[in-house]
Amino acid sequence: MLYLKTHANFLISNMKKIIDGIIIVEGTGDSSYLSSFIDALFIETNGYDIKEADIEFLQYCHKQIIILTDSDEAGEFIRNLLNKKLPKAINVRVNSNMCNKNGKHGVAECKKEEILNVLKEYFIDEKNETTKISLNDLISITKGQKEIKKYISNFFHLGTTNNKEMLKRINAIDLTINVIEKEVLDHYGN
User: Fold this and answer.
1) CA 153 to chain centre
2) Are 24 and 67 a contacting pair, CB within 8 Å?
3) What pLDDT was estimated at residue 96?
4) What's the CA gap between 18 and 40, in Å, rounded?
5) What does the alpha-carbon distance between residue 19 and residue 126 come to, in Å, rounded to a whole number?
6) pLDDT tens digit sequence for 19-36
């Protein structure tokens, strides 16, 4: 019985926290680390080089957008740049004293507890998965044609992405199969 309680507590404590929105981070190290314990859509700025297509997607997105960049000079520069283009974005800062690993002081070096603490007010209990579009749905809609995929990306301001990232973005903005199919039919016909 003690084993079952311990195992159940372990499973609960290791479940990913859910944010029904988008977290902007500086790089792949940040998104890889955060995605190990947070379920959200992550967009990476790749340093100072955030793609205009990503900015456009974020401007058209109706989800909450959280900026979580490093607390250093570069992170603040990126944050300021994003705030000019995304005035409704939420700024979240980590305590740099809690973010230190191997001489680095970024988001990827933060203690998990610090990240969970600064994001706690944005967590939700569960996502509504009933309207989510699957990879098979996406392939069916695009008929495997790059031209149709590109049209969908442009029309819905999804940016240039691979299928997996496109699917994440479609589901992040709650597009339905019917809406996408209708637009493709209206544009391409039967």
Assistant:
1) 17
2) yes
3) 85
4) 6
5) 9
6) 999 999 999 999 999 999
pTM beyond cutoff 0.90 = no
Token digits of residue 122: 């944005």
Encode pLDDT of 76-124 as tens digits.
999 999 999 999 999 999 988 888 888 788 999 999 999 999 999 999 9
Is the separation of the CB atoms in 43 and 19 below 8 Å? no
Calculated CA dihedral for residues 178, 151, 138, 52, nearest 10 degrees? -110
CA gap 115, 98 in Å, rounded: 9
How many Å apart are CA 148 and CA 180, to the nearest integer? Answer: 11
Q: Name the region of 159 (left: φ>0; alpha: ψ -120 to 50; beta: rest).
A: left
Amino acid at 159: G
Do 32 and 13 meet the contact criterion of CB atoms below 8 Å apart? no
Sign of CA dihedral 132, 134, 140, 146: positive
pLDDT band of residue 47 (cuts 50, 70, 90) is confident
Helix ranges restricted to H, the chain: 2-13, 28-35, 52-60, 73-85, 112-119, 135-142, 146-155, 163-172, 177-188
